[in-house]
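Late entry, iron/sulfur cluster complex.
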Amino acid sequence: MRKVPLVESIRIIGRGSLNWIAKRPIVVSFEVTDSCTCYCRHCDHGGPKDDSANLKPGDYRRYMDALRPCVVQISGGEPMMRDDLVEILRNIKAGDGLPYTILVSNWSLMTEERYLELHDAGVDQFSVSLDFPDERHDDFRVHPGLFRHLSKVIPRAAHFGYDDIVLNSCITSANAGEIAAIAGKAREWGVNLCYSAYSPRRTGCRDYFLNTPEQLALMNSGLDRVEAMRDKTNWIVNSRSTLDATRRYFECGGTPGCKAGLRFLVVRSDGMLQPCSMQFHQYPLEARNQMVQEFTANNTCDQCYVSIRSYLDKSFPQLVGENVAEFLSLSVREQA
Ligand SMILES: C[S@@+](CC[C@H](N)C(=O)[O-])C[C@H]1O[C@@H](n2cnc3c(N)ncnc32)[C@H](O)[C@@H]1O
Ligand code: SF4
Ligand code: SF4
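Prediction complete; structure with ligand written out below:
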């Protein structure tokens, strides 16, 4: 995985330290639309939605000025459905390279031209969802032809050599046996890989959680094989400690200690704040402190272990230490 240049790394650590002390979020996820090109089986989005109340590109500057995150995720729904995505990026990115910006997308609308355009507009990391290493991906995402499209466009985009593409694979009961094969696909396509964990909180459905000893054994043997593939290039973006915590999340049925609302938050497409994408308590931008007092201080939810949590549940010394030790120039390694 591409290392962030040293000067930018220092800026990220500097702003992160200030935010930690000032109790501002380290990571903000902008859900720029609720509409989507897919109808994934594990997700509560899917298909077209009413986009009439979406924030305009210029509105994002006000959020950036108030929240000053060092890492931004641009997500959705499917963010590439916004024709003005480049304009949104220009309002999020400042001249100093901050924030480190991750585009979380299913890549159904990605082309080589758009990849280059978004790269030039300031995307630091392209997170591409992949649930299966073959056409079963189309079935899970209810999008015929998606895998074939990815298998063409991902290697071509990787060929530009920016080393900024990360496959994002959400572990479910449906793909627990494919964990190592998905890693093989990332290698074949010349890109990086990050695992995330299914949460039943999004849809209320427990069927895609790992509910049986057989499913847990499949996950563990898959992750053991992935651990054996690690090398110094950090193409497996999750740290070993994060993958161990992912195993425990499934084994224990949850992970307590969530800092949603404080260390990270979601800005909905209409501009309201939420603690995370699966908690629907909404606050206007000006009431962020109220969200921390009312929600974060009393939050007992342990119902996900998406990567944003695995990253921000850590203490600040651990967070900085792990990144500096392995990646400085710093690499921001995980996304939701
Ligand atoms: C909500 S999507 C939004 C961005 C884009 N549409 C995509 O699929 O990448 C972001 C990520 O959330 C993951 N996701 C969806 N439902 C989930 C669930 N129930 N638990 C954990 N992750 C989930 C997806 O697999 C995807 O990688
Ligand atoms: S996971 Fe992403 S692509 Fe799938 S329905 Fe949800 S928002 Fe759309
Ligand atoms: S554990 Fe935290 S981030 Fe996950 S669903 Fe619950 S409140 Fe949201």
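Residues 187 and 197 are 21 Å apart (CA to CA). Will revisit in the morning.
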